[in-house]
DNA sequence: CCTCGTTGCCAATACGTTTTGGCACACACC
DNA sequence: GGTGTGTGCCAAAACGTATTGGCAACGAGG
């Protein structure tokens, strides 16, 4: 009982609760608040020793600028959004790729003094009306994405991950360099003996499908190999599409599946049809994840380095918000092929 | 060209950018800022017609209180955190259960004027030092969780989802009512003929494992059925644990697996051992998700209603932050059994 | 007529920071 | 000694809201 009241103010000096504000720092350092502010923000004219003293005091008492006050003054909230586009309202977004991007972006935002809020997927972007964001990351925008239009009208800076195919020059983006990475996967299949390689993509109009398809068409054309493609709508017909691809006279001897879950479904279809992986059909999926790792056999996959994508996107967005970059900027991230049991070793 | 400059200020009145602040609302309604503020927040003494007029004006010009200013004045940031506990630093968190909780909590926070930031998993909770949070949700805390200790010291209000088994009375929580729901699953197995039911749990010291185990032990004891249990550490030995359970003389005829992914792994082991599901071994998993739905056959699972959990947790946290609830409060959420192909129909 | 309680409203202040527009001093150059 | 050019620092004014402590008007009760 007595212990409780006694505990309350213990450790005030070293505690995590910011006690005094900037004023206190200034007082302890023997300068004005103006100078303290200047020293901490690295602006204005402050003597080197004075600055050092202020910084020392701030460190000492664990000073953190009150984000609300700072936001008020700077006309900024310190809040960044991140959202994933889905063709289905409220659709599942438990993709590992997505989660890893978010985590990386959160860390990056944090280290720059921003907070990242995860905006729930919604086709029209309603949630954005009530969020006071300084800027936002949009993962895998649709083609001609209405959300981007809306954000643009609202004047919210945007960085996309993947591109809106109709407006590739309007927004800054960070993207996978599929044009070369997809080819690495195809080369791998070819080098292990595949000659009839089929492509299975999604049909939601997101850029990764298109990129993979373009790479596939160019690559097969160059080699005079047959072009066998199929599309699966989001939902359950991935297995259906895979079955049509595999259950025919001139069966492919390899499958390049853009989405991880589709690849997983395709592997199930192979089993049902009595096709062995990788002996009868080799399988490569375009994004790594838990499904690819847990499948039997494990699926050879592209590691798209989502952490790097998230980090780059957040950094680009922050630079944009802070007006350190004027127009649009782009950044490509390379992927790496993880060879596993669904393809024959080279 | 001319069009561009013209477009810039179109729709100022109905636009999303807040034009004037509270002052503007007051001016248009012909009252003071004080009265406007009172009317909008439902406090103070304001005549009914005056209040209506203020609200109308605010609606009209699309007024939103500046969150920084409000935060500054109210000594609050409007930011809530949500984080998932993991025994492994930087561990994967792409569990559907988790994502659904986060989405629901985000919507709820939004509707109360808060923003939710997804705090990356980290054993020691470092990220929390740099986040100005009004409160936080901790999903599946560990036993004696150091993060909870730290948050408690920092004075950050906490609501957990699942419980810290060593401190069940110290924090408010929302939890699955496993004590009855696990039994529903066991009843189902029994009613379909199972007599040797084994339990496979995780070993990370999170409350759901313990709850499921307690329910299992009580239930089997009551019926005089054999008690066959195994634990799998986080990582890859779920298959190993399942194999030891299944590859023995007195083989179980049913498996209750607490974690979805472990159940998936166990199904793989069955296939390797030539055991048919559900003819030779029935399988129930304790949480639904994409793995359970995509497995072959699909796994009977408990739908834990993560949306409801997320919503309740957020509401409880907000009520706590706003001092509308004083001590701790608890809430149980029921689950529902989804019968699928891995168990025999009743 | 005076007092008292109630109702409806408002002026002024506080929240903690950043930024503007200086002031004072020092040094150098004619 | 004047004039110019930096340098180091500061007082005061924002930013937009919520809240405190009123003031005036009104009707009721003495």
UniProtKB/TrEMBL annotation, chains A, B:
<dbReference type="InterPro" id="IPR028082">
    <property type="entry name" value="Peripla_BP_I"/>
</dbReference>
<dbReference type="InterPro" id="IPR046335">
    <property type="entry name" value="LacI/GalR-like_sensor"/>
</dbReference>
<keyword id="KW-0805">Transcription regulation</keyword>
<feature type="compositionally biased region" description="Basic and acidic residues">
    <location>
        <begin position="1"/>
        <end position="10"/>
    </location>
</feature>
<protein>
    <submittedName>
        <fullName>LacI family transcriptional regulator</fullName>
    </submittedName>
</protein>
<dbReference type="InterPro" id="IPR000843">
    <property type="entry name" value="HTH_LacI"/>
</dbReference>
<dbReference type="GO" id="GO:0003700">
    <property type="term" value="F:DNA-binding transcription factor activity"/>
</dbReference>
<keyword id="KW-0804">Transcription</keyword>
<dbReference type="InterPro" id="IPR010982">
    <property type="entry name" value="Lambda_DNA-bd_dom_sf"/>
</dbReference>
<keyword id="KW-0238">DNA-binding</keyword>
<dbReference type="GO" id="GO:0000976">
    <property type="term" value="F:transcription cis-regulatory region binding"/>
</dbReference>
<feature type="domain" description="HTH lacI-type">
    <location>
        <begin position="22"/>
        <end position="74"/>
    </location>
</feature>
<feature type="region of interest" description="Disordered">
    <location>
        <begin position="1"/>
        <end position="20"/>
    </location>
</feature>
<dbReference type="Pfam" id="PF00356">
    <property type="entry name" value="LacI"/>
</dbReference>
<dbReference type="Pfam" id="PF13377">
    <property type="entry name" value="Peripla_BP_3"/>
</dbReference>
């Amino acid at each position: 009982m007595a212990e409780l009241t006694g505990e309350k103010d213990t450790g005030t000096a070293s505690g995590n609760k910011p006690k005094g504000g900037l004023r206190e720092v200034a007082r302890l350092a023997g300068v004005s608040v103006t100078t303290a502010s200047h020293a901490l923000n690295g602006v204005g004219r402050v003597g080197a020793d004075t600055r050092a003293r202020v910084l020392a005091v701030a460190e000492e008492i664990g000073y953190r600028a009150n984000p609300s006050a700072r936001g008020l003054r700077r006309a900024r909230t310190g809040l960044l959004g991140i959202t994933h586009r889905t063709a289905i309202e409220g659709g599942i977004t438990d993709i590992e790729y997505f989660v890893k991007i978010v985590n990386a972006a959160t860390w990056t935002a944090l280290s720059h003094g921003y907070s990242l809020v995860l905006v729930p997927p919604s086709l029209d972007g309603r949630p954005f009306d009530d969020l006071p964001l300084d800027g936002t990351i949009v993962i895998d925008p649709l083609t001609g994405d209405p959300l981007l239009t809306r954000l643009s009208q609202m004047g919210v800076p945007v960085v996309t991950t993947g591109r809106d195919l109709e407006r590739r020059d309007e927004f800054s983006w960070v993207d996978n360099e599929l044009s070369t990475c997809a080819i690495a996967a195809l080369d791998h299949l070819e080098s292990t003996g595949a000659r009839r390689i089929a492509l299975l993509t999604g049909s939601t109009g997101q850029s990764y499908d298109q990129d993979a398809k373009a790479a596939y068409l160019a690559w097969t054309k160059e080699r005079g190999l047959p072009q066998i493609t199929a599309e699966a709508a989001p939902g359950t017909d991935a297995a259906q599409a895979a079955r049509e691809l595999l259950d025919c006279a001139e069966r492919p001897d390899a499958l390049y599946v853009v989405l991880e879950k589709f690849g997983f479904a395709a592997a199930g279809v192979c089993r049902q049809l009595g096709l062995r992986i990788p002996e009868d059909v080799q399988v490569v999926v375009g994004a790594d994840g838990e499904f690819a790792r847990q499948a039997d056999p494990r699926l050879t996959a592209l590691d798209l380095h989502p952490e790097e994508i998230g980090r780059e996107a957040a950094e680009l967005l922050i630079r944009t918000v802070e007006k350190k970059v004027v127009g649009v900027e782009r950044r490509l991230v390379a992927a790496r092929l993880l060879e596993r049991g669904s393809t024959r070793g080279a």
